[in-house]
Request: fold
Amino acid sequence: MKRTKIVDIFAPEHIGSEVCVKGWVRTRRGNKNVQFVALNDGSTVRNLQVVFDLTKFSDEQLKPVTTGSSICVIGKLVESMGKGQTCEVQADSLEIYGTADPNEYPLQKKGHTLEFLREKAHLRPRTATFGAILRIRSALAFAIHKFFQEKGFFYLHTPLITGSDCEGAGAMFQVTTLPLDKLPKTDDGSIDYSKDFFGKPTALTVSGQLEGELGATALGAIYTFGPTFRAENSNTPRHLAEFWMIEPEMAFYDITDNMDLAEEFVKYCIGYALDNCRDDINFLMEHFDAKLVERLEFVLHNDFVRLPYTEGIEILKASGKKFEFPVEWGVDLQSEHERFLVEEHFKRPVILTDYPKEIKAFYMKQNDDGRTVRAMDVLFPMIGEIIGGSEREADYDKLLARIEELNIPMKDMWWYLDTRRFGTVPHSGFGLGFERLVLFVTGMTNIRDVIPFPRTPNNAEF
Ligand code: ATP
Ligand code: MN
Reply:
């Protein structure tokens, strides 16, 4: 008999018919006349109640039906009297696929802490919480493609292994096939990278942007969506060593076009989740964050504040707040500053623009004041920076001067500079950290809980 997914069972037309359901047992309870099993197959946060009448099933038959075991049940779907569910299956037949020894199965009890579940990352997707998070994550990934595809952007695959060590966004993980215990050396004693796989030093990418610009200045508008790697030893609730990033890059966009796109984009993603992941969001709201939907709708229905960095600094200085990191024009904003502006001062998302050039990357468009660049960071409640972007410097001479000023090796940059040598155009782009978006939409507070297998310092077990 054909299996019906539990997510589809709740449609009214199935009531009264015979169904076949398969899944993992969440709980079993009952008495000596009847046993109730909460069955989940991952298709929805909702469990299906399966009722075993003990005149039809023996104790012996039901013994292996414990939390974590996997079963197949055929039975009649009927309206349920019990509270909290609309229908239930009255079991006629039972097949056990796999048992889960109650003395060994780590998720035996309910209500484990998120910290405990991080240690069980291989099994935590089987919990209601992580099922909800992972389904929302999947829906958001789809929404991102849908948004850009419907706007005529092309999905560009930029390399994960890069030969340029000047992407500038963070510390890199080296990629090598050289034997680390017997490194080949040149005459002057340095490592002989001509013997390495690519004949030169290579690393995992920290951003696809530079290659994205090559795409944008050919296809007009592209986006990347892939993993990026940063060997930053920052053990914060908002940083991973391996995270996914979406990087649109658009020819003929100035910074205002860029801000408009960023705002429309995140609002679209939030709206998509509210429209398509309501059961999962409601579950997370009930169990973790009662204000979740309110916060999502608030962001959805309010314009983002747009403010130059310099004015932001003035607001922070005038606030009279004691920050851990003191504020002065020229400092890079810490998340405490970003969150003050967003959560306390403006009480809505803020796009901060025109940062001091010293704290931003070499490729950002230089303003006429000689001190600031056309950067734009989107700051969110709870998260701080969710997007970092800019209008790019399109002028060859200005870009070259900045590269030389910062001593970035030209041998790595010639291909990037070619975009400015041949048919340069005004263009812009930004990077959205996917996990920061998932954090915001799920209301989770630690980035390790919104990616299936988090990579952080000293943590690559699973
Ligand atoms: P932060 O100051 O928070 O470290 P950043 O300035 O290094 O961020 P960018 O280089 O502008 O960030 O990267 C673009 C986006 O990627 C950020 O806005 C953020 O959403 C995300 N991001 C950056 N670093 C990480 C990380 N280590 N883990 C997860 N997401 C990240
Ligand atoms: Mn960073």
In short: The radius of gyration is 27 Å. Residues 144 and 269 are 7 Å apart (CA to CA).
